[in-house]
Amino acid sequence: MSSTDENPSSPEQPEHQPRHTAVSPRARAGQRGRIVTPRPPAPVPEPRKKPTQQSGPDLSALSERPRADRSGEQGARGSTEASADRASSSTATATAVKPNQGQGGSGDTSSQAGTSDGEDKPPTSTDTEVVRAGGTMAVATLLSRITGFFRNLLIGSTMGAGVASAYTSANTLPNLITEIVLGAILTSLVIPVLVRAEKEDADHGAAFIRRLLTVASALLVGVTVLAVLGAPWLVQLSLDANGKVNVTMATVFAYLLLPQILFYGLFALLMAVLNTKGIFGPGAWAPVINNVIVLVVLLAYWFLPGSLDPTQHVAITDPHILLLGAGTTLGVVVQALMLFPYLRMAGVDLRPLWGIDDRVKQFAGMGLAIVVYVAISQAGYFFTNRIASAADPGALFIYQQHWLLLQVPYGVIGVTLLTAIMPRLSRNAADGDNQGVVRDLTMATKITLMALIPVIVYFTVFGTTISSALFAWGRFDATSAETLGWTLSFGAFTLVPYSIVLLHLRVFYAREQAWTPTFIIIAITLTKVILSYLAPFLATRSDFVVVLLAAANGFGFITGAIVGAVLLHRSLGSLRGREVMRSTTWVLVASLAGALAGWLLDLVLRGDWLMQFPKLATLMRTGLDGIVLVAVAGLILAKSGLEEIAIFGRALARIPGLRRFVSVRQSAPEDMVGVPNAADAADTYNVTALSTASPGLPPMSAGFVRGPKLVPGAAVANGRYRLLADHGGTNAMRLWHAREQASGREVALTIIDTMRIPGIDDYRTARDTTDRIIDRTSALYEAKCAGLAQIRHIIRDSAGAIVVADWTPGSALAAVGQGRPDPYAAAFACAGLAEAAVTAHRLDTALGIDHRDRLRISSSGEAVLAFPGVMPHNSYGQDVHGVGVALSLLLENVNPVPTEIAELQDEALHARSADAETLADRLRRTGLGDAELHAADESTPNPEARPGFGEASRRPTGIAGIGALAIVVVLAAALIATYLVGKINRSDNGPLNSGSLGRAGSSITQGDGAKAITPTAAAYWAPENGRGTPDNPDMVPLVIDGNGTTEWRSDEYQAQLGSSATSVKSGMGIMMTLPEPATVTSLRIDGAKSGTHVEIRAAGSATPATVDETTELASADLEDGSTTIDIPKAARQSAAPGAEGSASTVPAHTQYVLVWITALPVPDAAEISEIGVTGVVDKPQSSTVKPTSARSMARAAAHAMA
């Protein structure tokens, strides 16, 4: 049961009305607030003085026959006590639901409440406004994804992978710092209290907002200044100082980009404030404007003369650096400043006010847990960053691009499903409805996987085609695009465990098990770190290390999904795994069939007739492959008969632009895919924004949850009532003894959840039912009967209604029946209940005697309907029958029952008396006697206040054991999968093969301080007395000028190079001079054509006489675009030219590197635009090649875990 969104003002504050008040059931729909932002339970109240106990003897046990002089007590009780209590709380009931208030009538308290003190009542949202807000959020989120995709595409095409990595690493730092400093606190602490303050405080949270903005702004300014001053340290934390990403360039970018921390934080705060005011549009559209500004900046960079080189040392005054850094920060500044006009229109007071609200301190434990959660996740992110930066200049950018590309379908489809399903799942988790949680979790899992598995198969099978079509533009060369494609293929499966982890987090946070997700992220991060450490030992090439890093991220989330599933299984029981597997198998088989059809089509589209237009052909292949896959999979699934097909269709219909194409069966459960309210939409927007801030970081709290589970000590109705004891009831109607916080008065609460009433399966019907319940119950508001507890308030709740009545001291009727009461006292007690039924009938409603738990025997010995609330099925006939049932329960252990009383009991049970008033009179006359009743009153419970809800979290040691076992299992599975893939693949073009597995004891990135080395000179070289003439020697220096648009080009030859008589020459060379001797670890050759074969050789001087005076280090067939040639460690450990070599000698330092071309792409000429050299300049260290086998992989894994 969630907290309410109507909170009648308390007697202590008559001059102010709360934001949302209870309203008449007959009031217009547009006057009822429907946007309900849930919140954690209210803080524990200070102890209050107990109310004065009722004087006189307690007669609730019915142990003696009543006296005749008690026949007139009932009227006095109803008038005297009620009028006295009513006078003491007249202000409190001014905003409660009242009878006889028609539409638009003067008695409409919802209107009066807002204007009684001259102030305007804050507006509430109608159904139309809610739908409009949800649609606006969806459109804005979709446009944010689209513009964000083009922004990332333009970053790569304008900068190139190397520069983009430096830029991206610096641009991610503000997001990471904002998340850990403010994001976690904002999500877990500030927003829930902000919502409560806005609803509960006399000033609608104005003072709280002022304190929040003052303290947060000061904190953000301080953190921003410290971050800018510590920019070099932050960059070195993220990047390997000896890696291949330009640390100097990243540091310069960081100085300009880190000020974003202040504006990201302000944006998050201001958006939260606007959301509580019911204003959602600006927060959703501001990121779109930010993306547009960055797009303009990137286009300006493209047209600015010159460009940044990934190896050059730059200063902050470089115009390219200034444009990119300041322009990107400008976008974030505008994003934050956009919200200020809307804050002014909403009347938000932004004047500084120092202080911290005491309510924030109540949730510090959850805040600490989430801060630790974020810190651990970001530690894993930094570890991955450092490995990627040590492997390849473009690895960081490629890794982030693959993650953001995965987030596009997840953000558009997956988050749409979360928006539709999560509110109900969260409510059931918070309410402690385990079966409901399992049901909704199963359905959410099935339809999420149904949406994502076809996408995963598409990315896995066609990853390189997709990346070439979308990213191989401008300076993002074909080789980088291919690496991105492999990364996408190897990392696509991550979406499955990632989405499952998010579903699990939602349940854990809804149950306030805040530390459980922290333990899960520890397991995720440990798995990811271990496998990431192994990536350089297993990759075939250094630029393929990032591919294995993506796979490591996915295996990490598999560990998290396993741990979450085990913990949920322990607390919830079976998670219906077979049902999920059946659905998943259907979707997987259908998707694979669609992929096969797409692959066959792709073979046809690769024909020469289309390859004349390569870019167009690749785009066409990418689109048609996906369309065919989805079409075939959809046709197969349409025949599957799966229940979730209809639900998935209804959810897809909510995506802008898809409604017209999606046909949905009406049998889909409406409540699973209903239109979310704007608060849910805002929640989902925040979740998706957080999930893309740092690759691999799941949202911290998985969004807000609904109100507290009903447990003793919890608070309801915006913290106005503290629950004391559960008195039973039904699934749809819970009965509670509670205490009013403001006055200390004990009350009875009838908490009605209309969604749990049998036959109600959609929100529209539930809303109408709530209206009817409030309408019928409000008719009893003025009733003064001994058999009915006096109703004080009827409060509309987000899930139904809460009826507040005076507490009836005494005993539960069923408990009295177990004590063998006097039969005449029992008959007399039921007389007042029958009279109350008559009174209700005269008021054109029913009393609602439909459950034994509702009835109590008062201290004066009378049966009372202690928990009022008229349900739709209640009737006058049922009330008469209920009087008979009540009498039967009291006489259950009485034997023999006097004849005259037994006749009355039978008459009431079978409703043979049409006049309940006559029945009441006969019961009273029959029960009268000379005896007096005495019984002990039930003691008022004093439960410990419960700031949380749900079962207690498990011991950390137990979770640690589960996590450790899951890590071991996933690591074993990952290594087995790696071994099998490597053994199956014999090609050198994949990330894994048998050769790379054989090198498992040696890291391809060497870890020896290799970094980019810029040659000081490049010249054409040919052997002395060799055949032929030099090929454009004056153009050779262009290969080291840092400009990818210039190139060296050989002459064209009809015959291939070689030593045969028909060959014009044996080869052609480019001799490069390094600044100082170094151990070369790799070369990158850009702008070459497929068919060119080169040898990388070390020379003792710039002018060796013959090829034999040089030492071959590596050879490779160049590919179109860019090719990275890694120097095997054994070759680098060979002796210098002219010396004897062995595996144990010191690596040869050389200052001269020869690129010896031995084959041309005949009949075309050889072309090279740039040559990049990577090596170790400092003093060499001796090392040996370790044994290579599957055993060495196991040893490497053990070393990583150690």
From TrEMBL:
Topological category with respect to the lipid bilayer: Multi-pass membrane protein
Cellular compartment(s): Cell membrane
Record-annotated membrane-spanning stretches: 153-170, 176-195, 215-235, 247-272, 284-304, 324-343, 363-383, 403-421, 449-473, 485-505, 517-538, 544-568, 580-599, 619-638, 959-981
Region ranges (Disordered): 1-132, 932-952, 1179-1202
GO BP: lipid translocation; peptidoglycan biosynthetic process; regulation of cell shape
Positions with biased composition (Low complexity): 79-96, 1189-1202
Alphabetical keyword list: Cell membrane, Cell shape, Membrane, Peptidoglycan synthesis, Transmembrane, Transmembrane helix
Biased amino acid composition, Polar residues: 1-12
Cellular component GO terms held in the UniProt record: plasma membrane
MF terms in GO: lipid-linked peptidoglycan transporter activity
InterPro entries given in the database record: Lipid_II_flippase_MurJ/MviN, MurJ
Top-rank taxon, per record: Bacteria
Protein name: Murein biosynthesis integral membrane protein MurJ
UniProt lineage: Bacteria, Bacillati, Actinomycetota, Actinomycetes, Mycobacteriales
